[in-house]
Structures are given as structure tokens and as C-alpha cells.
């Protein structure tokens, strides 16, 4: 029996392959929400050319990527900081929170926010979101707020009016827009198009939409003085030359953006409808390329069975504050893969004993020989 710790994030295929006792390539990963249409064809073409860039140090600032992003967003390049994934930029946002005072953290939230805050001993208070994942009517006093829009793990989309209420309340606003590119009209919901605010930080990722999780690329849009402060805090070359090169190629592919948006709506509706037909599952409406599902059966049990019997990896939500064993999250993938998932879940749920159902009082997963959930 291999003792492997439960991964903190989705997408840990090595861990999953050990549990499923298969090769990594045999897994279908629904746990990380990555665009199945990608990466854009232009990125593969640029990959070869990018080799020449490896012979030199990457541009520390003022890169072509920064200019490409500035042109797309219609803002000054000095307001953009490119990062080694959105996760690296969350770290510096955590440091800003520590400088600001107390952070209000609506939960459940992407687990990396806590890491970023803890890295700088930033004081924070967790506040439960409403049952439908909208913002609660009242928030405690604080200096900063950190929120994903669309929200992870629910896919809830906060309206410009809901965000405007936060603009009035906090001196530092961190909006994580890692999934916003999946909306038909990102500008209609982005905090970048809201009122001007001297403490506004928007963080985005190229990981999910452009299907480049291994490349590590994201960016932040923030006030110029803050951008300069972050550059002084960081190591000199946080974004490698290949990532910069491929990032420019990804952004140039407008046809890929159109194709992705045309694919997502119908694919998500079809998957949601398929899941909703299964016993004990309630699918929450979501605006991103994943769905949060509430389950009468233990999601830990479902994850284990899907892995062992079908080599399908989903994300149970025990690591999200306030969700626990009753929820799992799945990426929207290609049609045949989505059908595999609904078929496999139907089979497992038909056999799931009452003891593994969380509703009522029997909440423990069935006995297992593998440490799928060793905590
Ligand atoms: C809400 C959210 N923000 C940020 C990230 C990190 O993205 P990246 O891969 O660009 O570091 C993730 C990754 O899962 C996420 O879900």
C-alpha cells in the first residue's frame, strides 16, 4: 500500500495513477478544469521557434507578453505584472494583504488564498458565502477582500453591482479572474471594467482557457506603484523565456477564443443535464468550465470508485472550507469523455450502499484498502 498524501489541488495525475494502478496517460482528468480544445494551434507552432529564446535570459519586465496583454486590455503595460502562473501572483497579493491590515476571505475559496495569506502572516477572517454562493448581506469590517469571479469551486458569477458594493468597503480588492475568459463577454463582468479604485488587483491565468497548466503563466493588472513594488519583491526572472514566447502566441489566436466560447455553453448544459438525471446528485448552475455537484453519496467514495474502476479523476471538495464530503467538482471536457463520466457515475451510484450516503447520519466512506483519503 503506497502512502500518498491527498493532493491540495486538482490535476495531480501522478497521485491518481498510483491509486488507479494505471499509467498516467490512461487517466481522464476532470479534477483540473482545463480547456479540452487547447492549446491553441499557434502555440504548438511557436514552441519550436521559442527554443532560440532559451539561449538568453528572459525579459525581466517590459516583455513582448506584457505589451501584447496591454494592447488586448487597452491599458498601460506598466500596470501589468506577468507571473509564473496566477498562483505566483497570489503570493504577492498575500503580501499586499499583510501590508493593508485585515483581509476578509469569503469561503469556500480556492485553497491557495490561505497559503498566500499565511506566507506573510496576513491576518484574515473567513466569512461563509450565502447558500447559493452569492455574497452575504453583511461582511465584517476589514481592509482587504479576496474573491474569485467566476467563483471556484461553484462557478457562481458575481454581477458588477455585487462587486461595486465591495469597491466602497475595502481599500484593497483582489479579484481572481482565472476563469473569466470562459464567459461570452468577460468585459461585462470583469472588475477591470468597474469603477476606478486605487487598491484594485485583478489576477488572471493562461492555464485554464489556453490549456497550458504545465507552462505556468498568469498576469496581474494593478496600480503602477504596486506593480513596481511587486517587481522589487520577486526574483529577477520569474517568467521563463519560453512561457513569454508561447503566451504571446496564445493571445494572438482569436479563432481559438471564439471556438472555445462556442463549445462551452452547449457542452456544459449537456453534462449538467446528464449528471442531474443521476440519483442523489444536484448540479449547481455555474458560469465557468466546471460544475459543482452536491451529492447524497459521499464524494470521497465516488472519487475513489471512479478512479479505481474507471480511471476517471474528479475533485471531491473536502479541502474547501464549508463544503466537505457532500460536494464534488468536475471539469467540462469533450463530449465522449463527459459521457464516460456520467455513465461511470450512473453505474457506481446504482451500487452505492446506503452506508456511504452522507445524508442522514451515515457519512463515512465504505471500507477501503487504498489511502484515497488518508487524512
Ligand atoms: C481560482 C483559481 N485561481 C488561480 C489558480 C491558479 O492558476 P495558475 O495555474 O495560473 O497558477 C487556480 C488553479 O486552479 C484557480 O482555480
Oligomeric nature of the chains: single chain
Q: Which structural category do the helix and sheet elements fall into?
A: alpha/beta
Helix content: 25-40%
For the record, the CATH class of the largest domain is: Alpha Beta
| Shape call | globular
CATH topology of the largest domain: Aspartate Aminotransferase, domain 2
Biggest β-sheet: count, sense, barrel? 7 strands, mixed
What are the distinct ligands in this entry? pyridoxal-5'-phosphate
Descriptive account of the structure:
It is a single chain. The protein folds into 2 domains: 127 residues, Aspartate Aminotransferase, domain 1 (Alpha-Beta Complex); 213 residues, Type I PLP-dependent aspartate aminotransferase-like (Major domain) (Aspartate Aminotransferase, domain 2, 3-Layer(aba) Sandwich), CATH 3.40.640. The chain is globular, with a radius of gyration of 21 Å. It starts with 12 loop residues before the first helix and ends in a 24-residue tail after the last helix. It is built from 11 helices and 13 strands. It is of the alpha/beta class and 375 residues long. It has a 7-stranded mixed β-sheet, with helices on both faces. The chain binds pyridoxal-5'-phosphate. The site of pyridoxal-5'-phosphate has 13 residues, from helix 4. Its cofactor is pyridoxal 5'-phosphate.
Task: Provide tags for this entry.
single chain; 375 residues; alpha/beta; Aspartate Aminotransferase, domain 1; Aspartate Aminotransferase, domain 2; 7-stranded mixed beta sheet; 15% strand; globular; disordered C terminus; binds pyridoxal-5'-phosphate
